[in-house]
Amino acid sequence: MRDFILQCFxxxxxxxxxxxxxxxxxxxxxxxxxxxxxxxxxxLILPHEAAAxxxxxxxxxxxxxxxxxxxxxxxxxxxxxxxxxxxxxxxxSCARLVAEPVLAAALAIxxxxxxxxxxxxxxxxxxxxxLTAVLGGPTIQHMGYGxxxxxxxxxxxxxxxxxxxxxxxxxxxxxxxxxxxxxxQSYQTHQLxxxxxxxxxxxxxxxxxxxxxxxxxxxxISRDDLEEIFLQTEMEAYxxxxxxxTCADIMSRDVVAVEFATELSExxxxxRLHRLQALPVxxxxxxxxxxxxxxxxxxxxxxxxxxxxxxxxxxLLKRTPLMHSKKAEVAGxxxxxxVHTATVSTPIVKLVSLMADEGVHQIPVxxxxxxxxxxxxxxxxxxxxxxxxxxxxxxxx
Length: 397
Prior knowledge:
Elements (H helix, E strand, L loop, with lengths): L1 H11 L8 H25 L12 H11 L8 H21 L3 H19 L5 H11 L2 H6 L2 H24 L16 E4 L2 E4 L9 H11 L7 H19 L5 H4 L7 E2 L4 H11 L3 E5 L5 E6 H6 L9 H9 L13 H4 L7 E2 L8 H6 L4 E5 L5 E6 H19 L1
Parallel strand pairs: 3-4, 6-7
Antiparallel strand pairs: 1-2, 4-5, 7-8
C-alpha cells in the first residue's frame, strides 16, 4: 500500500527542470528587478491618493513569463500589452453591463480569451486582469474605463521596459522573434529548384507544419524554437552514430596552398599538377585568407559559351608586361575571400549540411592559431561516412 501511494505521488511530480542554477537565479533577480521598478515608477507617476492603485496582482504572473520563460510566445511584447489591454476592456465592460458578479466574471474570462485568440495576443495573466476588473472592489469599479490606462497599461508598459533591458543585459534575446510557417529551403543548382539534400532525409518544414496543425493545441514554445530543438536533436543523434569523428580524423594533411601574391599561372599549374579543384590562399603565417577555385578562374573569362575557352584562359594566365594593368595577375585578386573553415576538433557531422545544402566542395582545416593544417573535400566526407557505416554494420553482425 505504501509503495502504491508513493508511486501515485511520484506520478504527480513534474520532470526535473533542465535549466541550470544561473538561469534560475537570473529569473528570480529579473522578477525582483521588474516588479520593484514597475511599482516604484507607477507610484512616482500617479497622484499620491488613497484610492490610487500602483500595482495590480496580475503583474506578478506576467513577471514569471517575462523573466522565467522570455522565449515563450505568451511572454512577447504584443501578448503582454495586447492581452492585458483587451482583458481590461472586456472586464470593465462586463462589470458595467452584467449585474451578477459571478456571471460577469465568467463572461469576462471567456470573452477575453476569445479576443486574445482573434488578436493573437494570448497572455495567461490577462485572465486575472479581466477578473480583477470585475471583482476588484469599489475602488476599481469607481475607476471605470480609466482602469485600462492606469494602472493596467502603465504597469504593463513599465514591466515590459524592464524585461527588455534585463533580458538582453543578461544574455537572453528579447523580444524573441516568433516566425510563422517556414517554406522549405530551395536547393539551387544550375537554376534548378529542388529540396535541399539534407531535407530529403529526416523531417522537413512542411512535416512540422502538418504535425502542429494535427496537434491542434496552443504550445508554450515558438515554432522556430521547436524546430531548432528537433534539428539539434537530430545533430546529436548523428554525432552519436558517427562516433564523434572530427576533422582531424579524416582531413588531408598534405595540403597544397598558395599565397596572395602567387601568380595565376603558377596557381593554375598547381591545380593541374595535383588534380585539385581548389587551393587555400594563406598569408606568411599560414593563416587562411581566402580560397581559389577553378570557378574563380572561369568567372574572370566572362564566357558566353565554351568557344575560345583555351585562348581566353591562356590570356588570363599570361603576365601583362605593363606595370598598371586592370587584368588580374595574382591569386589574391580573384580568390573567394569569404571562405568556410573548420577546426581540427570540429565534428564532421557539422560539415554535412554545409557541403550538401550550400554547395561547399572543400573546407580548409585550421588549428587553434588559425593556421592551415589540412583540407577536407566532399570525397573525404563520403569516404569517412562510408567507413563509419561499414564499421557499424560489422559491430551489428
